[in-house]
Amino acid sequence: MLLIHCPWCGPRNEDEFSYGGEAHIVRPAAPEAESDAQWADYLFMRTNRKGLNLERWVHTHGCGRWFNVARDTVTHRIEAVYGMGEAPPVQSRGGG
């Protein structure tokens, strides 16, 4: 089981959290101008790379706040935890 450090509540077991997908996905500025294929790409396509990934998590059974985690998908080691809207303190292998 992962031990995730909530920035507001401290270290907690992973079963208190929900995974929110890849972090730093930028919503199109004018979604109505996007084609169906472009909108589908924004909604569903993620890098899903092996190694260090930047992810969104929410403390579902705690404070309910969102934050970002830099986690290695091979070892599950958490490299960093940082706030929403903040720049990642580490760079993922794929640049995202």
**Which consecutive residue ranges, at least 5 long each, have pLDDT under 50?**
none
Order of neighbouring strands in the sheet with most strands = 3-4-5-6
Order of helices and strands: EEEHEEE
CATH-scheme architecture: 2-Layer Sandwich
The CATH homologous superfamily: Folate-binding superfamily
Helix fraction, binned, reads under 10%
Q: What separation lies between the terminal Cα atoms?
A: 25 Å
Global structural class: mainly beta
CATH classification class: Alpha Beta
Q: Beta-strand level of the residues, as a percent range?
A: 25-35%
- The global form is globular
Using the CA coordinates, give the radius of gyration.
Answer: 14 Å
What's the overall average pLDDT, rounded?
A: 92
- The figure for the number of domains is 1
CATH topology: Folate-binding fold
Q: Tell me about the largest β-sheet.
A: 4 strands, antiparallel
Number of helices: 1
